[in-house]
Amino acid sequence: MAEKLRSELQQLSSVQLRDLLRTTGHGQLLQSEVYNKDKQVAVSKVEEQFALDAKNEGNALFRRGFMNDAVSAYSRCLKVDPSNAVCLSNRAAAYLELKQFDLAIIDCTKAIKETPMIKPFMRRATAYIAVQQFRQAVADLEAALEFEPRNKECHAKLQSIVDIATDVRQRAGASTEFRKAAIQAALIVSVREGWTKSAVRGNPGPAAVNGHTLFSGADGRIYLFGGRAVREQKPDLFVLDENDNSSWDIIPTRGTSAPSSRAWHSTSSIGHENRELYCIYGGVSSRGEDSSVHLLEHDALRGYQWLQLRCLQDSSEIPAPRSGHATVSLVESTGNRAVFIFGGRTKRGVNDQLLVLRCSSLPAVAVADSSCVVDTTVVWSEICQEKSVEKHLNWPSARDGHSMCLLQRSECHWPRLILFGGNGQLNDERMNDVWTFDVEKQLWTLLHCFGDIPPPRSYHTAHTIGEFLFVVGGRTAESEDNTVYMLDIGTCEWFKVPVPNDHGLAPRAWHSSVLTDGGKLFVLGGGSYHGPLKDAALLDLGYFQSKASLLFRRHDDKFVLDK
């Protein structure tokens, strides 16, 4: 039609074209100097004006609610100007109102091909949601957010996808594709504000540190111990102000068994689950790798104190000094928390031992008040791998700078440890393998993962939310990284968490992080080869945490564990 109109206009004489412009209300085009020089350009001007008038007519009809008439007007515009992206997008909006979703998708696709803009992406996403093509809808909404990262309508549509998916799971189960779309949508919504950065202050506050540890106390506050700075870091215990994410205070401690300054150690809960007792183990001190264990207890009346401890085992049963290991606390059937320790670097290089540290606190007298501890005994044990070649292949290789987290007991699994990444024997031998350890069966399993697999890395941090593993930063072969990755453990698929680029995290490794009960991921310090970092940042994963239990994959062959 457009070619036919153009041909007919070109066949008119200059006088006929002038009369046509006057009678159709487009006489202003006669004032153009271009018209007097080139009739072809004048013809194009006529077509452009016809298309504009038709589009404006369509917009007016759309606003009045006459959708069929609006489609007709937009169609007249497109007959003259088939590549008009705005008109294609507007006709798609009318098709959406008429519930002609397939036609809306076609028009939006054409508009995006001509000129990518936010509206056709959003409108196509709306059509995809209506026809239950959720993966495509999430992809379009993510593309739309590239134009406006804080667009509330986009986030509302993503939340609607999550709500549909979680509701379906409760009733009848969701398809794999639908579930994956909901996971991606939940991630986008949860991290929509990106990282919130804060300074590190105090009087005194912690120095710029790397190789330190953060941990959550029973009071929900965040604590810091150890690390290495440009100047020597004192072995002080710091606490973050609960009302100010940038202000730190030193916590007074008592006792004569305080550890020396150290870095790349571990801090874990230990002892009975009703006691607030923390184990600081290993690390690098001024004397090199350290083998000592230190216990820090918090008591509501007496505050924090370092406890005297003893180990009655032979020296041959005490593990070699190490740093860069990974630990997980697990409440056993006795009600006591054991610390599982894997790997680390010793004087002989990296290590592949799986150790367990337990402690028993003996009360001063046999009375109800068992908080009066006079002696704490620690006991080491090792979970040994089989010597056969076949069994040896089912065991993670020696490493340091890896992460290890706890997967809580579920209806399908006993408690498991999940291990990721780290350095091999050589400093540039980085890994990105994932292993789980069944604590009951004492069996390691290598996961065969796919998707957005993170490059091999070490000295990152990791946390679990339900059946999902989040990995933050780390040192890759090229440099420090600031990316957040998430592993869906049920399907072994990796996702790159879409944190907005304008609210990113400075690249880092050797940092520490803690995930609060409310789903706030707090990162402090770390560094690069340029030196330590003195900053902190917070990423809100609370929305994802609230939906995680409804999004994880339930196995078709699920079973219920014995009580």
TrEMBL record:
The keyword Repeat applies. Keywords: Kelch repeat, Repeat, TPR repeat. It holds the Pfam family Kelch_KLHDC2_KLHL20_DRC7. TPR repeats lie at residues 51-84, 118-151. SUPFAM superfamilies: Galactose oxidase, central domain, TPR-like. PANTHER family: ACYL-COA-BINDING DOMAIN-CONTAINING PROTEIN 5, FIBRONECTIN TYPE-III DOMAIN-CONTAINING PROTEIN. SMART domains: TPR. InterPro entries: Gal_Oxase/kelch_b-propeller, Kelch-typ_b-propeller, TPR-like_helical_dom_sf, TPR_rpt. This is Uncharacterized protein. PROSITE patterns: TPR. It comes from Peronospora farinosa.
